[in-house]
Every structure is written in C-alpha cells, then in structure tokens.
Amino acid sequence: MKKIVTCLLCAGLAFCLIYTGAFGTADKAAEDMLFHHAGSIDTRIKIIKIDDRTMNRLGDFADWNRDVYADLVEKLCVSEEVRPAVIGFDILFSSEKDADSDARFAKACEEHGNVVLGFSYVFTKEVTSDENGHLVENGMAVQEKVMPYEALCEVTELGFVNALMDEDDGIIRSSLLYFVEDGTRTKSFSSAVYSNYMESVGKAAVYPTEKNTMTFRYSGNPEEYENISLVDVLDGTVPAEAFDGCIVLVGAYAKGMMDAYFVPVDRSGQMYGVEIHANTIQALMEGKNLANVSKALDGFLTALIVIALVIICERLSVTKVVIVCVSTAVFKLAVQFMLFTLGYMCNVLVLPVMAVLIGIYYIALHYYKATAAKRSIEKAFSKYVAPQVVAEIAKNGTYELKLGGEKREVAVLFVDIRGFTSMSESLEPEQVVDILNGYLALTTESILRHGGTLDKFIGDATMAVFNAPFDTEDYVYKAILTAWDIVQGGNRIEKEYLEKYGKSVGFGVGINCGPAVVGNIGCDFRMDYTAIGDTVNTAARLESNAPRNTIYISEAVYMQVKDCITADAVGEIPLKGKTKGVFVYSVTGVGDYKSPKEE
Q1: Are 505 and 423 in contact (CB under 8 A)?
Q2: pLDDT tens for residues 326-345?
Q3: Burial of 382 by CB count in 10 Å (0-12 exposed, 13-18 middle, 19+ buried)?
C-alpha cells in the first residue's frame, strides 16, 4: 500500500509540474543551455552592416539622406546577371528627408524589384469581448504602424520587423510569420524576404508550420553570418559579385543603435536584430520549426517513467539507487536532444528533478532504516554492555547480527546469591522477586559501570564478560573492581532486606581470565551473545566454590593484578569437571591500578 501511494504521489506530482509548466523560465533556460546550439550558417545569407566604422566615415546614421541606400542598391545590382536575389532593409524609413534622395532611393528599389523593407507595429493592450461575450485582454491590439514614406511603400514589398520576446525572460526564441489585421494577413520581414527568395529561384515558399508563430533553431551565433561594412560595399572594396544570387540583409551593427536582443544560443551577450532575421530566414529555408509535444502526453509518459523508477528503487541499495536515478536523468536528456534535433520540444527539467528527488528519498529512507536498525541494536546492546561499549559499537558501525564468534582474551565473572534457594522457600513469590531484582540490579549496575558486558542471568546468578565485544584496557582489573563493588554493595543492602523480610543473602564471586570464543551462539531466529570455553567453565567453578561475600580468583587473574589488590592464597582446590586442580586466591582488598602502559 505504501509503495502504491508513493508511486501515485510521485507520478501525480510529475504530471502536474509538466501540465502546469511550473518550472517556466528555469526549464527554458535549461533547454537553451543544453540544446540551443548554433549549427552551420547558410552562406547564401549575407549581412551588410551599419557599424561604427561606417558611421565614422559617413557621419551619424540619423543624419544620412537616402542617397546612401540608393547607392547601395545600385552597387549591388550591377545587371540582371549580377545581383542579389533579395535585398532586405531592416531599417525604418519612416519619414521623408531630402525630396531628391528620397525619390532616387524609391526609383532604385522600383527599378530592380528585389527590395524588401521593414515597418513596425506599435501594439497596446485592449480589453474586448469574444464571441461568447466574455471579456478578454488582447495584448497585441494595433495602436499605430510606423511605415516607410509613401514613395517607398508603393514600389517595395513590406514586412513588419517586430521582435517576439519571451514574456518570462525577454529572450527571442520565436518569430511571428504573419499578423492578421482587419482580416488581412501581413507577412513579417523575415517571411517576406524568404518568400521573395524562393520566388527568385523558381520555388514555392513552404512554411514549416501553419501557425502564425514559429519557434526556431538558431543556425548562427552572434556575428557569425558573413558581415561586411556598408562602406566597403560603397567604395568597391567588396565587389557586387560577392552578393550575386544571395539574400542580402542591411541593418544595425552598432550597440548605440539599440537593436540588439538576448537569444538562446548566447545568453551572456546579445545578437543584433538583423542577425536574428538571418537566423529566422535560414530556419524557414531549412524547415527548422520546433513544435511542442502535447503537455498531456509529455506528462503521462513522464509519470509512467517515474512510477517505474519508484518501483525499481524500492528494492535497490543506495549505490544502485544513485546509478539508476542518474542514468534516468541522463537518458531523458539524451532522448530529448534527439527529439530536439528532429524538431520537437518537451519539458526538460521535470523528469531529471523527479529522478533526483526519488534518489534523495530512497537514500534518506535507507539512511533512516540504517539509523533505526542502529538504534535498535544500540538499545539491545545497552541492556547487556556498558554505555561506552555501545558508543564504540555505534562508532565502528558493527551492527550486523549473525551467527559465529571469535577467539579473544577475556575475563569472565560469575556471581551467585548464597542461600537463595532456602530463602525462596520461606517467602512469598512477590517477596522473592523483589529481593532478586534488587540484587540483580546491583550486579548489573556494577558490571556496566566498569565496562563489562552483561552476558546473561542464570536464575539467581549473573555472568559477565570483560574485553568483549571490543578491546578494553585493564579489563582484568575492571573485573576485580566489579566483583568488589558487588560484594560491598551487597553488604550495604543486606540490612534493608533483613529489616523488610527478616532474610539476608550474600554473594559468592568467581573470576578467571584467558582465551574464550565470543560471539552469537544459537540459530538465525534466536541467538545469544556469549562466551564459551574452558576459561568460562573455570570461572563458573570458582564462583560455586566461593563462600558467602567472597571473591575467588584464579592464579592467572592474580598474576595480572597482584600489584593492586590484596589477596589470601586459598591454595589449589579441585574443580568439578577438571582433572587438575586450580590454585585460588581470595580477594581481601583493592587498591589503585597502574597499567603497564603507564610504567
């Protein structure tokens, strides 16, 4: 059920993000960076630029009369055999200047018949009613048109030069191909140049889309199209033959002329308007329209991939989750690049972002589960070992519980309540349990305080191991301290139970040290962490022989701690199950311990 909910939530989120276009500008920016790269320019398109060099020679652009343009047309159109296919002026000749030069320019345009001029719409917002009577806002209501002077309008084909900037970030990714005004379809400047060129080569103009707007792929970067200064054409430095049969665009190429825009192929700089027209015209010539994939289809397919990703990641390790999620994001971008080259656009970021989020979710889930398991193990170990040992387990990350053990040097302590059996026969069960819990709490606290591992309770007896599961400094001495604390603590609480129940008990303690096998003993579904071996058996036998409130230690223990304890030699005593006796000491006092490292 949880997996189904996760799948549905992720898939629904992916679909909504795509369908609503939630990433907006960020998605467009990613598409620009990843896919909008210039291709190869068409050498049939050339730009004659009005640049700083030209204005240094001819004066300020605004002060020119129309003789400059008439000279240009005449320089380019030498004869019917040597002439451009189309000359497009990305310039607004909106007012008359000098009557003679105005007339001369108009005559040159009429005589050669291959000139396309630009004009500009001035749009405004207007609220109107649609066919159903609902109020709608029209952001492209025509307020006025800035047209060339009348003589030019009569002898040239016109096209509007308005740039179509994206409302979100001001970048030009699309171009208007035509605009319908009062039922009449008017071509854009780029469309007019393109259709005139196709006519000049005897072909029909074929538009890559029936819509009035075309999103296109740029072919050239800023200043990549062949561009020639206007003065180099006028003074004959560049001959007319260089432009024969070409599309020649004339326009601003100086920053001060305020005709530069941001484009997707170079977001760090700007591209002159005449270059954008060159890219648009080449896109029309090559059919480089970019169509949007249906949002519903895009969202549906992305949702399916997200569902598959969730199902797969559910059963993978962290490393494989990272590999799968990264691979999914890379695969998505690779497929989209192929689609982009084929002329299709779809959402860029949603699937990679969802893949990253799913990856983060499952990595966090793995971490949470590992942390929960760690806490569970720590909680379990905390019932058996000292806090510092739990901390060491946590630090080293050794949390896998599995059958098996290792041979270690350990100290083993057994402690048993003397007289418990006879006492339990004369008391109520609740009273017995109360006394037993009190004494076991004492033994447990003493063991954990000195860094021991509480192995198990055996009826009224307690077993502890020192130097396991991790190495512990001075572990034999700490076992002695634990036993001493237990005996001394037993003396203190003996009076309490004597007054309360009229019964008192004492402890017998046995300690031995040496090699033992320490680990998890049992089966897969039920195991105990314990120590086994002769060292353990000897400690148990020492405890069973120790009188009340007495600590028996083996000679092996005594030899390690003899400098910091006082003990009476008991002598060699036989131990059940052993063919040879063990020399035993009885601890009578504990002093400060100086480890070999400090000496």
Answers
A1: yes
A2: 999 999 999 988 888 888 88
A3: middle
